[in-house]
Specification:
The protein is of the alpha/beta class. 39% of the residues lie in helices and 21% in strands. The protein has three domains: 190 residues, Spore Coat Polysaccharide Biosynthesis Protein SpsA, Chain A, CATH 3.90.550; 31 residues, no CATH class; 60 residues. Helix 1 links the parallel strand 1 and strand 2. The model has no long low-confidence stretch (mean pLDDT 94).
Length: 294
């Protein structure tokens, strides 16, 4: 019997992780399962919540938060299943989600990973599938072209707002909030890249899967609810800097090579200015809201 390892990295997730664990326990299908939780926020400690619902779960509490991606690798190193199901603590799987995704992967060895259709809490479909960013993406996004022409297959290609989230098809980069990967494929391509603290580690792993010659399937018949933002909404402006830093690291690793290395200073400048402006805007909005509430 095949086994699925459900891997969760928690950070200030006590208010949502219980529902995620319950949804795992309710998964239908003939397969073994194990639950591995890495908690990166020791002072909160989700161990009691998780083990009350799943006594067999393997819960590790880290003294320090060394990043989401390191937590992912820590969980992966403990996994024994043929399939690795990466699930955000603010995600809840529909009862048939795992079974349907496994069925997709077992039907075609060229498929390395599968992602379900993600739903908001009100049942509406999340825009969860993107294409890989390029240097052109930096220009289109930060000079307003992507916003002016969001459904353009050129200017809006990265955020992919024209994508049909009702069609089963191979994609480049689904949101990894609920993401099933064959363990043997990850063994071949290597661990998640811990140079990405949080953001763009999922983009990087998808890129490496596809560069290795595999495909990633988007399976809208499998569904999962996902609370956008989760624990990251509880954090400050440093997450904006991490997002832009991850963006740059991804481009430097996969796109800005060879003669394109000359574009790295310009890319870094644009992303740095964008990050500063976003932080200023965020703090201004926060200050305005605080003034109104007082």
């Amino acid at each position: 019997m095949k086994k699925v390892s459900y891997l969760l990295v928690a950070y200030k997730s006590n208010d949502v992780i219980g529902d995620a664990i319950k949804s795992i326990q309710l998964q239908a299908g003939e397969f073994g399962r194990e639950i591995i939780v890495i908690d990166n926020f020791a002072s909160e400690n989700c161990c009691d919540i998780v083990t009350a619902l799943a006594p067999e779960a393997n819960v590790r509490i880290n003294a320090n938060n060394d990043g989401f991606t390191r937590g992912i690798n820590q969980a992966t190193s403990l996994a024994t299943g043929e399939y690795l199901f990466y699930l955000n603590p603010d995600g809840q799987l529909s009862p048939d989600c795992t079974r349907l995704l496994i069925s997709d992967l077992e039907g075609d060895r060229q498929l390395a990973a599968a992602a379900p259709q993600l739903l908001n809490q009100d049942g509406s479909v999340q825009k969860s599938v993107r294409n890989f960013p390029t240097f052109a993406t930096v220009i289109y996004e930060h000079f307003g072209l992507a916003r002016l022409f969001p459904r353009s297959h050129r200017f809006g290609r990265w955020k992919n707002r024209y994508f049909d989230h009702e069609s089963r098809t191979c994609v480049e980069q689904p949101m990894a909030s609920a993401f099933l990967v064959r363990h043997d494929v990850l063994d071949r391509i290597g661990a998640w890249d811990e140079r990405f603290f949080i953001f763009f580690s999922d983009v990087d792993i998808c890129r490496r899967i596809i560069d290795a010659g595999y495909c990633i399937i988007f399976a809208p018949d499998a569904k999962a609810h996902h609370g956008l933002g989760g624990s990251t909404r509880k954090e400050g402006s440093w997450l904006i800097y991490d997002s832009h830093r991850g963006f740059y690291r991804y481009l430097a690793k996969h796109e800005l090579r060879g003669f394109r290395i000359l574009l790295r200073p310009l890319t870094a400048t644009i992303l740095s200015v964008s990050a500063v402006l976003r932080v200023i805007y965020r703090e201004a909005v926060s200050a305005t809201a605080s003034t109104k509430s007082s």
